[in-house]
Each structure stands twice: as C-alpha cells, then as structure tokens.
Amino acid sequence: MILLRRLLGDVLRRQRQRQGRTLREVSSSARVSLGYLSEVERGQKEASSELLSAICDALDVRMSELMREVSDELALAELAQSAAATPSQPVPTPVRRPMLGSVSVAGVPPERVTIKAPAEAVDVVAA
C-alpha cells in the first residue's frame, strides 16, 4: 500500500537536505516542534495544510512545487506497484538523480509509461 504521508515526508526531507538545513533550523523557522517535524518527515504523522504551509514557508518552497514532487513520486510508486502485479513484466526500479531532479524507470516498455507531469519536473526513461 502506498502511503501519501510517507511520500510527503520523503520529499520534505529531501528539500531540507538540499538546502543543507537541520531539523532544528526548519522546525524553529516553521514554529513546529522538532519532534513533530521529524515524525512528519518519517511519514509517521499526517501534516495539516496549515502545517505544510508553515514548513514550505520555512523552506522557501512553494506548496505547489512540493505537491508536484509528491505527485511525481506517487505516480512512480503506482507504476511500480502495477508492474509488480503483472508477473510477465519486470518491476521498474525508480532511480532519483538528485542533481537533476529527474527519475529513470528501468525495465518498463515505453508503452507502459504514462506519467502526466510538467516536462521540467520529471524525466522518465524506459530502458
């Protein structure tokens, strides 16, 4: 089962780490307890829209950008899940290239790849 809170937490953590910031710095700036922010990043707590807004402000990231990245991750997870359900197809292996912010899916025929996202957000390569 794909958990949205885990995907959201992963994306928030990557955003924070790209900036070289600590949990303490972001939690202080967002006025969120360090423990709660840590639980959100680990996908253990569901963040409210107000909390997400405060975290995005602290990270200086638009919420729409955050949600786009979460949506891209969700699409890849669904793709991997559906490929795993089809035994004749190899399971795709999403590979994130942090410098480019793109994802490669290996082992998926091109006709099986359908991800609707802005071109600048995700590059999908079927190998």
Provide a short characterization of the protein structure.
This protein is mainly α. Helix content is 51%, strand content 8%. Helix 1 crosses helix 5 (63-85) and helix 2 (23-30) packs across helix 4 (49-59).
Could you characterize the architecture of this molecule?
Helices cover 51% and strands 8% of the residues. The protein is elongated. The two termini are 26 Å apart. Strands 1-2 form a two-stranded antiparallel sheet. The longest helix has 23 residues. It contains five helices and two strands. β1 and β2 form a beta hairpin. It has 127 residues and is mostly helical.
Mean pLDDT: 81
Strands ordered across the widest β-sheet: 1-2
Distance between the termini: 26 Å
Question: Major β-sheet, in short?
Answer: 2 strands, antiparallel
Shape estimate: elongated
Number of strands: 2
Proportion of residues in helical segments: 40-55%
Amount of beta strand: 5-15%
Per DSSP, the total helix count is 5
Explain the layout of strands and helices.
Elements: H1 4-18, H2 23-30, H3 34-41, H4 49-59, H5 63-85, E1 93-97, E2 102-106
Antiparallel strand pairs: 1-2
Helix pairs in contact: 1-5, 2-4
